Amino acid sequence: MTLHISYVSDVLCIWAYVAEVRLDEVRKEFGSSxxxxxxxxxxxxxxxxxxxxxxxxxGGYAGFGEHVRKVAEGFPHVTVNARVWSKVAPTTSSAAxxxxxxxxxxxxxxxxxxxxxxDLGGRTLFEEAxxxxxxxxxxxxxxxSDRQVLLDVLRQVGLPTDAIEAKLSSGEAMAEMCRDIExxxxxxxxGSPTYYLNQGRQKLxxxxxxxxxSANLRELLEQPEHQASWC
Length: 231
Fold this sequence. Notes:
By secondary structure, this protein is an alpha+beta fold.
């Protein structure tokens, strides 16, 4: 049995950034028993509205940057640059989502290798690209609303940026991104990050510990489909 999981997130979400290590553990523990699908939603689609204006009474971008760094202090496996949000404030996460949707399409079409790689800790190239885009902002304070920054990150990962730009130009990547937003609404996804399991019967949203994630996945894998659990 292979369990299908939709993992929904925003690349600018600090909780998704710190939770990336849990995805690594899912791959390590469950291997081919789980199939991870990645979807992106624009929690930070318009940061000037959400942060600069929406948090004006709490310091705007600078105040939000301080909040993000305080969150990260509780997770020693990640680094947040002091310039994040205070000095480097991306205008949108959607630019990153669009290029990642282009990469996702190319992976589905076989242009980008979908195999998991030992040199990437068991990630696929697409998964590594997603992580490196998150890291480009949070660790290195690069503006990932700038397409040239995004293409540079993908180029360093080893993705074919000419093919990605073709998907952007054709509108295919935009259509994929819009479909992710439609699925968010259809599936009533509340925020980032969210694990969407069991045809929507289970949703794990927010800063959920790995043991909770693992227990839910094991229950679904070990419980036969025709047998309802009493507990």
